Amino acid sequence: MLKRTGVPDRSQIKDAFPDESYLIKPKAIIECFEAIPCNPCETSCPVGAITIGADINKIPVIDHAICTGCGQCVHNCPGLAVHIVSIKEDKALFRIPYEMPDVPKQGDIWDGIGRDGKTVCEATITAVTQKEGFDKTTILNVETDKTYLYDFITVRRP
Amino acid sequence: MIKHEELIIIGGGPAGLSAAKSALEADLNVLLIERYVRLGGQLIKQTHKFFGSKNQKAKMRGFNIATLLIDGLKDAPGHLTVLTEATVVGMYDERIVTVWHDATYKKYQADAIIVATGASEKFLAFENNDLPGIYGAGGVQTLMNLNGVLPGTDIIMVGSGNIGLIVAYQLMQAGARVTSVLEAAPRIGGYAVHASKLRRLGVSIKTRTTIKRAIGENKVEACEIVSLDDQWNIIEGTEETINTDAICIAVGLSPMHQLLSMAGAKTSYISELGGLVPCVDENNQTSIDGVFVSGDASGIEEASSAMVEGRFTGLIAAKKLGHVTKGFDKDINECRDQLFNLRRGPCGLKIREGIRKLREVNDHA
């Protein structure tokens, strides 16, 4: 399915998430399902939570017990395949990489978009971070209803 | 008059620049010849972050890698001369080349030559494919990322390899709307992460679909797309017309072997490497003594591999001319390890098979 449409299966997405009990703290979700020669997520992780190994074609494996949700892997992933997720009461909190020139402002409410490009929910932009170290990738903090934990992936101007 | 040079490198892209660095560090005098107005090759148009590992500058954006490679030539001990807007139009016996530069033809004879000419885009045969508004993906990147000109507003991308997916994404970033990415094969050709990035933006990717014809009077106004069966035949009745003002073709690359062919280097057609490629030994030397090749000119791969191959070939060429660097064996092994690592996964299957076939051709010779 992924290699036919570009959209991962529901089961692949679920497998990339840890048990929801982990998500009381922010954790990196790595949606890298294909063996490609690439390892910046592993080398950028300051706590050694991500393992690829000597063969850089291996799929990254993350230990969510070690991951601190620091977000280094988010802007270092060339494939924009990592985002940070946590749950707070009835809200899902995300930190996503964003590379479109139309950048939202803190407090904006934009469309929450799913992996197939369709609108799935309302998304509140809670922070917008642009830093030299991010190398022109903007990091957006976004809040949605917790229901959309596995559905939300990015935002679009409504 | 024929001017003598120690080492001539043809092409200032990722392979040529990396070869130049190795050779200069070995204290060689290098003449680097580039057809475009500036160095960097395709890297200068690449706005995305690169894959690979730290050794191949992974996670840096392509145009920044170009700057890094160019700046890296400054402090090396050897002497570098760069000709830009200079086209090598002929390559002959005894490593003689003719260069069109500054409105004159200049002749050089070199002790060694590294051909790092890269690749050219393949095109696709369909009705009206000569209408204005139909571009190669490289042309679109030049217009858009170098000159700030959008080729259109509603765009069809033909081909879902990494180039098709990346250029489609860049078009969306630049404010165009990519209506669809078409892929004749049953599966997306490029990395899944690139495809997922596009899908999030609402771009549809249609596999087993191709372009049947372009429609328009003086320029592209629409195109007819059609589904293919598992034998790659058109399924009649599935034609669909989509309004579009630009069609971008990204259906693969061919190695630029022409200069080597002109000089009489042995070549072989190996589809896994992108077409006609020079027969090289394990040191990237062609059948002509002292003439080497590296990067896409020897087989289509990623820029990460081109950089490593360039570094490797520069070291080998320097050794050939009697400049054995300190740590030569270690550096060569490091290059070989890096290439092995980049190619060892499922994405490297094609290149591995291509190299195997090339070695077979050499063994039979």
Q: For this structure, what is the CATH class of the largest domain in chain B?
A: Alpha Beta
Largest interface: A-B, 44 and 44 residues
Order of adjacent strands in the largest pleated sheet of chain A? 1-4-5-8-7-6-9
Which stretches of chain A are poorly predicted, pLDDT < 50 over at least 5 residues?
Answer: none
The whole-angstrom Rg of chain A is 15 Å
Distance between the termini of chain A: 28 Å
Question: What would your notes on this structure say?
Answer:
The complex is a heterodimer of chains A (158) and B (365). Chain A starts with a helix and ends with a strand. Chain A has helices at 2-5, 10-16, 40-44, 72-76; strands spanning 27-30, 50-51, 61-62, 82-88, 91-98, 109-113, 119-129, 138-145, 154-156. Chain A is globular and about 45 Å long. Chain A is 13% helix and 32% strand. In chain A, the strands form two sheets. A seven-stranded antiparallel beta sheet of chain A has the order 1-4-5-8-7-6-9. Chain A has a two-stranded antiparallel sheet with strand order 2-3. Chain A has 158 residues and is an alpha+beta fold. Chain A has four helices and nine strands, in the order ααβαββαββββββ. Chain A has one domain. With 365 residues, chain B is an alpha/beta fold. Chain B has two domains: 2-120 and 253-364, FAD/NAD(P)-binding domain (3-Layer(bba) Sandwich), CATH 3.50.50; 126-249, FAD/NAD(P)-binding domain (3-Layer(bba) Sandwich), CATH 3.50.50.60. Chain B is built from nine helices and 19 strands. Chain B has helices spanning 14-25, 62-71, 137-146, 162-173, 192-200, 258-262, 303-320, 328-343, 349-364, and strands spanning 2-10, 30-33, 80-83, 87-92, 96-101, 104-115, 119-121, 134-136, 154-158, 177-183, 204-207, 209-215, 222-227, 240-243, 246-249, 253-255, 267-270, 275-278, 291-293. In chain B, strands 1, 2, 3, 4, 5, 6 and 19 form a seven-stranded mixed beta sheet that branches. In chain B, strands 8-15-9-10-11 form a five-stranded parallel beta sheet. Chain B has a three-stranded antiparallel beta sheet with strand order 12-13-14, with no helix packed on it. In chain B, strand 1 (2-10), helix 1 (14-25) and strand 2 (30-33) form a beta-alpha-beta unit. The two termini of chain B are 37 Å apart. Chains A and B meet through helix 1 and helix 3 of A and helix 5, strand 11 and helix 8 of B.
